[in-house]
User: Fold these one by one.
Assistant:
Number 1:
Amino acid sequence: MSLDTSALETEAAPSSRQRLRALVGGDLGLVPVLVALVALVIYFQVRNSVFLSAANVTNLFIQAVIYVFLGMAEVWLLLLGEIDLSLGWVAGMAGSIAAIVTNVQYAWPWWAAFIVALAVSAGIGALWGLFVVRLRLPSFIVTLAGNFIVEGVLLYILDHVFQGGGAPVQEKVLSDLTNGNLTPTWTWVFVVATVVVSAVVALSRERARRRAGLANAPLYRLVVKLVALAVFGVLLALVFNANRGSFIPIQGMPFAVPLVFGVMVLYSFVLARTRFGRYLYAIGGNPEAARRAGIPVDRYRVYAFLLGGLTAGIGGLFYVSRLGGYSSSSTDSTVVLYAVAAAVIGGTSLYGGRGKMTYPVVGGIILAVIINGLVLIQVSATMEFVVTGVVLLAAVTVDSLARRSQTLLK
Amino acid sequence: MSEPVTSESAAPSVTGSAASGDPAPLLRLHAISKSFGAVQALRHVDLDIPAGQVTALIGDNGAGKSTLIKVIAGIHEPTSGEQYWLGRRVDAHTPRAAAELGIATVYQDLALCDNLDIVANMYLGYEETRRAVLNEVAMEVHTRQTLADLSVSTIQSVRQLVGSLSGGQRQAIAVARAVMRDAKLVIMDEPTAALGVTQTKNVLDLITTLASRGIAVLVISHNLNDVFAVADRIAVMHLGTLVSSGPAANYDTASAVELITTGTTTRAA
């Protein structure tokens, strides 16, 4: 059995063409996006040296959290070629519920509040999903309608059910989601553990393949990745552990960072290593093929909407935590567009079938960098919209070109 | 050479060389009819599909070839008639029932996911898992084994995305997927349409390999060159009727064309 050696016998394409195919076919993964991120960071740091200060970097990560969660929520849907335009208000709904029921007036324990808030957001998502699969309606329209409905219901709740037009966060765990920090020691423990676990997992996978006689990617690539991860982790730990307080010392990695990371790892695992994830990709790539393979396509569509709602709900908890409460002016309908932008800037395809949970993390950080940096260099808020729009347009253009050249090369 | 048996009289005995003395064929269709409302798409079709042989189903557009393979694949339930699997009467009237018998259909669109790699496509819907986690190593080993068994040598890596493969390679993956699931009868709908010369040759080689492994292959094709290159048996359809079937040696291009266009042949080939 020698598939690899006999490869060049007949119709193997010339290697330059294949290299081109790999280049435009999205095989570079996150590399171009990371290059863009580094360029942005350098630009803002040159323009204003406060940009990379410990306080600002921490602030930037907290800012990115909502985009990252909403972006991950959209990835569940974009993978199937669907979209959920109501996720911004769904997040607001979950955050408001958590803030209201943990308020001194009701004083629910935080975990009960989180469960109810997330159940509501997941339920709303699943409801849109049912409309899409049962009535064969386009998700764009269903969730656009849903966006108005959720907005109206939420504003009604904020104005009438809970008097005073807003729900302040009065519960410690909810507040700590974005305001609490690991101690410097635990920050190091988290960073070191992450690098060690990543290395062990990668190496054991490599060993299992070698034992089965399968080809591995060259070892240097793995080493480069692990070293990059370690360097990045150490830099983050140093920044987070620097004192960023003015009067009392504030140090340590915000809780939000390991929490976002944990959700990303869990989601990535589900997508890459389980049947569930495999079927989502299959449906996104070719729904008819998935159906013929016996995959219950409609049920998976509803699951995706449910997971989108759930993930947006998690983001909502962090959002309300950061704002310190939720009022009728806390958000608007553009938040969800940033969510789609975060997913797509990272490299998720709008056409379905291509995307990873790491993409909205990088995309969300890029958005936060732009928004945060433009404020620091004192560009007006209107320019923020323009720059964000240009970045999104560039990302979508790359996506579309990659797709087209892939079909052309076939 | 004897004249091809014409079966317009639809005798209950079976046509062609696999006659009553031989062991039961893998699949025997007897007097299969199928109507869609007033339209009769198939009339009393009798056909034997023996194991280990390539049966080519030829006929003009609208002759009923597609309807017939859809009946065999369990997509259409016949209006009347019987099917025998290894001599036993079966009613495989759902795709699942047909698949359980070992009937696999490779449609023209191949039903592959371009965004997944070869291994993922081969196992789609049948993934191997260990404690709920995809067992990629086992699936990759098995995929390579299957492709090697079928002498598919043009694939560089089974971790390539299917979207990057040529038409012939995609066809090979779709067939290999059927073989990996222990298909005993592989139905191929126009497998060489839109393929270049080299790729056509590869696919035809693959069809021959399948038959040599004891698998029955039913091929629909418009390309008579391809048909005569691989077919052990030929069945000709005309206006919903199976007008002729028998060993490929009983036919030549001229008689095949005449049967396809007129439903009868005046030639003794």
Note: Residues 1-14, 22-26 of chain A have pLDDT under 50 and may be disordered.
Number 2:
Amino acid sequence: MADNQQLFQFLLRMGDNTLILGHRVSEWCGHSPILEEDIALANTALDLIGQTQMWLELAGEVQGEGKSADDLAFLRDVWDFRNVLLTEVPNGDFGRTMMRQFLFDAWHSIMLGRLLKSSDSRIAEIAAKASKEVAYHLERSGDTVVGLGDGTEESHARMQEALDYLWPYVGEMFASDDIDAAMVQAGIAPDPAGLRDEYDALVGRFLTEATLTIPDNNWAHKGGRTGAMHTEHLGHLLTQMQWLQRAYPGASW
Amino acid sequence: MEQPSVEQVWEWLDAVPDPEIPVISLVDLGIIRDVAWEGETLTVAVTPTYSGCPATSIINMDIETALRGHGIEKLELKRQLSPPWTTDWLSDKGRARLEEYGIAPPQPAGGPTRCPHCGGTHLEKLSQFGSTPCKAQWRCRDCLEPFDYFKCI
């Protein structure tokens, strides 16, 4: 049986992924190439932040120290975050943002699909809610990657550059450790490593249609989901995201 | 005061408009999942449409304000995640009102059947995401007007 500390870590991984990516995507608000894309990105960010509320609320409950989702989001420092590095890398251009979204959405949709059958009903309920939203995210990010990849010479070059830059961050999503083993044992969550084949098939289908080439090298940056080492970008993100709660502790609407 | 019936409470809730789309009620939207008396306390189970929908907290406040206005003193609002909200729960009355208001109601096929302005059937999708999480943007190629489509989830 998984202990609460391990379950807490698993929930942080789910909630921190959506929190950090949601914040990154929200940085586009008011800056996108066209209005429709601006609205779509803001909506995606909103869904991710909503899902964060559910994951971190449950994480706080499991931790049992009376912490709310807001406490966990705004009052932890870099080392306590458990998101994969992919979610914290800077947005880059619109193409890179959409490629990052696609690489994450593909993993997210497969992961949530498995969590629907979690032995923990609270997790299955969140997954059921979130997976419906993520189906729309993947549809859009996948279409956009295909449209830009198989687009003009310039858009194709930028998408290939984005894929080359981001591919080394993909492997971390499938790096299993003791916490994952405990989750598998308890029937709470799947082994991330076991999702890789399905992921490669799904991502490969879109990227082939996008006329893009997946880099040969599967070497992966790691350290985000274990908390061992984040990129320098996360600290900068947190200074902005957490500023208000740090400057005015306890401030509320 | 005498305890109002559950049916009565449903009627009251059917008069509370959705804050984003005020032509339909919270009951039409299908987000009120249960109304029950637990002893002296009235419990209302509400399910969110989209997990990040900013209207959720306003909706809870509107429910509370409406029911307190009808003299309910002990009230508990519960968030119910499962089963997750689906556009299948929109009432027929709600669907008709959406269309009158200029929002194409959700269709099983995944796209609107006709333009809510002119009834035209030559339609194109502009974006799967719209002005609120629950809507997509479409355009009618007959009257050239853009319109919102309440997307299926």
Note: The domain at 6-85 of chain B is CATH 3.30.300.130 (GMP Synthetase; Chain A, domain 3).
